[in-house]
Amino acid sequence: QIRGVALQFRDEEPGALVDREGGQKRREGIMAQLLNRLRAEERIAGVEFWHSPERCGWLMKQGEYIKTWRRRWFILKQGKIFWFKTEEVGPSSIPRGVVDISRCLSIKGAEDVINRAHAFELSTHSETMFFIADSDKVTASNAGTAVAGSRTDPSSLSLDRQEKEEWISSVGRAIVRQSKSVVDDYGSY
Predict the structure, then answer these.
(1) Domain range enclosing 132
(2) Mind telling me which CDD domains this protein's record contains (predicted)?
(3) How many domains in the chain?
(4) 168 with 113, same domain?
């Protein structure tokens, strides 16, 4: 049960014991996803992430359980980083995940750590997340060329480098703002 709602999987009868190989792990994975979704909904309360973000854009993010790289749309707003499957985000959108900046300790380049160009890492007390800048920006200088935006196009690689630096800078400023507000709150006691 989650919040008083009984969950039943399609392939089992009520009260059935899990006896199929892999069934338990699949169910545990589904339960973990549901709990993560509920926690994310609690963390987004009051943040209009779909309106006037501080920063937004495509990044590659490594999966939490299955360590594959997935392209996600990221939004930084009000001390939180949200990510979605698509850039079409509105009031009814549910983030795939949320990071509270107040939990973050540092953000820095990580090309040498994961051997990927334009990589950076975000560290909290409990985990380190890795991201790769993935710019989809089209500039006036590359808009007319057939290969503009491709991974081999030098202007695209430069945009990815710039995108990485801008994310590090934006999130770094947000971390400093959050830490200052904590210090200010502590000093008022």
Answers:
(1) 49-187
(2) PH_AtPH1
(3) 2
(4) yes
Q: How far apart are CA 179 and CA 148, in angstroms?
A: 40
As a whole number of angstroms, the distance between CA 64 and CA 24 comes to 19
Burial of 21 (0-12, 13-18, 19+ CB in 10 A): exposed
CATH of the domain at 60: 2.30.29.30
Between CA 50 and CA 86 the distance in angstroms is 12
Query: Is 65 found in the same domain as 39?
Result: no
Q: pLDDT at residue 11 above 80?
A: no
Helix (H) or strand (E) holding 82: strand 80-84
φ and ψ at 114, to 5 degrees? -115, 5
Does 89 share its domain with 105? yes
pLDDT, average across residues 150-168: 77
* pTM given for the model: 0.67
Two tokens at 99?
């990071």
